């Protein structure tokens, strides 16, 4: 089915027309390079081995403050164009070598930076955090920000985006069995978290709790999570936070490079891999390209006692990037396809209320079932494809002014197949025709101008527009057809008052008009409902550096979001979650006021961040389970009805790492959340549990010929959720607390002249039986048990 879906002719002619135009645009343009001088500055140089003087191909050169970066070519050279004429911090890193930070001065124009990296082994015994890197962390944002990049991100490859982000403190997951997870940031998820990939806002059917983001985490070189309201910069919906995924900059010097990443997982028999190649042809100056593809295939996962039947999945994705630079003009275009087919645990579908009681009392699947492991994917299941084409242009003009423009078109198709045949179909049609088949076509246009005000001030002014068309091609009417138009206008700036004190502030206005066609069950006809939602956002924050090792930041932000189409009009069985869902067509908008403060520390022997926040949400929309399930001819399903309240989410996220010895790293973290339903004067329904964890990491300079060898054990304890909303129905109490232990060992092995990064990881080391309070299947089955994974990363070129 996956391959069939992959090859399916797409319904959107505009998508492919734009995609073809993108390719045609990039190719002829590349032949017009003339080398015209540019107003922006260029930074170029080489990265070499300090001991041998040999070039280091594939080393990473980043400018974190600008979200820019490049990889060195086979001769160790790099080049970044169109940079602001200002000072900038440059971070250079490479596997097995000590990271280096440098400050470069581009105020007078182009600059050269040559860096020699030292082998980690030569420096072991002296763990040092460079001042520039520490200052980068201290001054990262006035809100709490989590970052995954470099080796840390490579060591997490092969997982879903939700599982990857769960390694950041303050981020948990909302799971639906072992195959589906979506990020939860400080208790908020789905439409309250904006996800951007290379600047394009991800638009799928994210209203569903079991609808994971259609993102290939293999392709990103850096993932950043902004925790808290960020409505000014990212528009309606950014109430809980923002997840940004960015690729590495395209190479700017001739040559071909890349890397291969391979993973194997024992629990589900999963195999995963990714190949990335990029280059810059010498015959076409200014032109660069990157081609990346990945695939994952897994069988049924295993809990400590059972095979979780029909939890297999297959996934594939591809990403083509083309770039062209001519003088101050930079253009890059992306074509991306993501496709997945995944099974839904069969035991989540039951015949009647008594069956549910029996399942809960039994604590697991029916003992008469066939629990044999399989790679087969049967109904109930989901088949999802997501296609994106985008074109981004950037130029610098005048005295360092910047302008960015971006157009994107994306189409998301979601098909969900019931365990039973669709209405009017024969038994032979089981698994062949979806019970609902949704296609969401989104087009967006973004324009942003950044005038160069002064060395101390930065200002961004932008407008955004978006159209959406949602169609359901199947007989079910869980979500109606609709068309929507969005528009937004914003201004956001920052000011450096002194070397230690900086401020940022901004305002934004958005509007959404929507025309939906929900089915009226009383009149037995489709309606025509038009609604317009208007909302504003604002932010004000400050950051104070307390010497070279401490900083404190405070931020006050407001954001809003309109209710999504499911919250308004859903009525029917949602096969992905095996529940009956009922919307509320009279819902208004959500508005939030988020106040946070963050204390950071960076020094040679320790680093840490403590962030406290209070997010007050007016008109918080959520789905509450009814006491009685809904009986249909297709079975009996738990019933969830949309409602709203005023809510307050307050918590603390804290992490600390100390390095008492050169070879020893000790870490601890905690994430505490208290969520209240202000209308009822008690706990809020459906929030994650408190958790605390820690790790011990030991390193060795060389061991058995390997470099940068490490061993790490980590422990996480998740408390039982004891706060239950007044009057809320739970078919069974929240599951008990649990503690999970993990083990990792790894290092860099020489393979001829190629360094291979290898990591062996064991999750749930003691095969603990557990269920999470936010798991949609917590009534039915345990989470996966003991599992080992092997990861290998191989640089090419």
Model description:
It is a multi-pass membrane protein. With about 800 residues, the chain is mainly beta. It folds into 2 domains: about 45-115, Immunoglobulin-like, CATH 2.60.40; about 260-270 and about 290-420 and about 430-795, Maltoporin, Chain A. The chain is built from 9 helices and 44 strands. The strands form 7 sheets. It has a 22-stranded antiparallel barrel. A 5-stranded mixed β-sheet has the order 9-14-15-12-13. The protein is globular. It starts with a helix and ends with a strand. The model is unreliable at about 1-40 and about 120-130 (pLDDT under 50).
- pLDDT under 50 segments (min length 5)? 1-39, 121-132
Average of pLDDT: 85
Q: How many distinct helices?
A: 9
Radius of gyration: 26 Å
The total count of strands amounts to: 44
CATH superfamily of the largest domain: TonB-dependent receptor, beta-barrel domain
How would the global form be characterised? globular
How many structural domains in the coordinates?
2
Percent range for helical residues? under 10%
N-to-C CA distance: 36 Å
Q: The CATH topology of the largest domain, please?
A: Maltoporin, Chain A
| CATH-derived architecture of the largest domain | Beta Barrel
What is the class of the largest domain in the CATH system? Mainly Beta
The SS-based structural class is mainly beta
β-strand percent reads over 45%
Q: Describe the largest sheet.
A: 22 strands, antiparallel, barrel
Main attributes of the structure:
5-stranded mixed beta sheet; 797 residues; signal; Immunoglobulin-like; 8% helix; 2 domains; single chain; mainly beta; Maltoporin, Chain A
